[in-house]
Design goal:
- The chain is of the alpha+beta class.
- It is 65% helix and 18% strand.
- It has a two-stranded antiparallel ribbon.
- The radius of gyration is 29 Å and the shape is rod-shaped.
């Protein structure tokens, strides 16, 4: 390669990478080409941030789903307790069933 151009990928002023292009012949890059490469770098920052936000949202959704499953299991056990006063066997069976389901255990 005889000519190269690198443009930093900056997120909040901090470098997170670079985009580099090269040529086999010696020839300067035009202002339009440099500008286009800067635009690609700016778009890369947006894509990186979108992935971060998507992953954050996915993690939060997973956490909320797990919390809802736990609350649902608790409510179902409480229903068994209310429907079986004085009889602990159905209560313990329900607790065991819900614990297996929440933990993914056989």
């Amino acid at each position: 390669m005889r000519t190269g151009l690198s443009v930093p990928i900056l997120q909040d002023g901090n470098p997170v990478g670079a985009i580099t292009v090269t040529r086999r012949e010696v020839e300067p890059f035009s202002e339009a080409q440099i500008s286009l490469l800067k635009t690609f770098a700016d778009q890369a920052v947006i894509a990186i941030e979108n992935v971060r936000l998507f992953n954050e949202l996915s993690d939060r959704t997973r956490d909320l789903r797990e919390a809802l499953e736990q609350q649902t299991a608790t409510a179902e056990v409480l229903q068994v307790i209310n429907s079986s006063p004085g009889d602990l066997a159905p209560v313990f069976d329900s607790i065991l069933e819900k614990a297996h389901a929440l933990c993914g255990a056989p």
